[in-house]
Design goal:
The protein has 148 residues and is of the alpha+beta class. It has one domain. The protein is 24% helix and 23% strand. It has a six-stranded antiparallel beta sheet with strand order 2-1-5-6-4-3. Strand 5 and strand 6 form a beta hairpin. It is globular, with a radius of gyration of 14 Å. The mean pLDDT is 86.
């Protein structure tokens, strides 16, 4: 079993259908995070690691506070993934930028949640508001060699 590291950089995104872009950029619109840790190839680097281990990645449907989430993660993280997401939802971790995940899980009325997708670029985990159409598109673009 591989232990999850405490996350620091969680990339936020919204579902998108941008046919002028290819690969993951065609199905997601990424938020500008405003910190150098998210720049300089951090996302492509994490994506490369995920794709290099794609046969060890699994999908799991998880419900937290009646919110359905689809999680895509390395199978060695299975025993800790629910606790990890619950800890993120309760702000247990100190992140570089806010994740907006807590607002989605707990319907914080102070802020309108606009995030559909989260990507932990430290642990190479992706999760999103369960959405069948998006899930089908994701399964296609996450495969290696889909961004050429």
């Amino acid at each position: 079993m591989v232990k999850l590291r405490e996350p620091y950089c969680i990339q936020r995104a919204q579902f998108s259908n941008n046919e002028s872009k290819i690969g993951i950029d065609g199905i997601l619109s990424f938020d500008y995070m405003g910190s150098a840790e998210f720049e300089f190839g951090a996302l492509p680097g994490s994506l490369k690691i995920i794709r290099g281990n794609i046969n060890r990645y699994i999908y799991e449907e998880i419900t937290i506070e009646q919110k359905e989430i689809t999680v895509f993660f390395h199978k060695d993280f299975k025993s800790g993934i629910i606790e990890y997401l619950k800890d993120l939802a309760t702000r247990k971790f100190r992140l570089k930028e806010y994740s907006d995940f807590d607002n989605y899980i707990y319907d914080d009325t102070c802020f309108k949640n606009k995030t559909d997708f989260w990507w932990d670029i430290d642990n190479h985990i992706m999760w999103w508001k369960t959405n069948t159409e998006f899930g089908l598109k994701f399964k296609i673009v996450i495969q290696p060699n889909k961004e050429k």
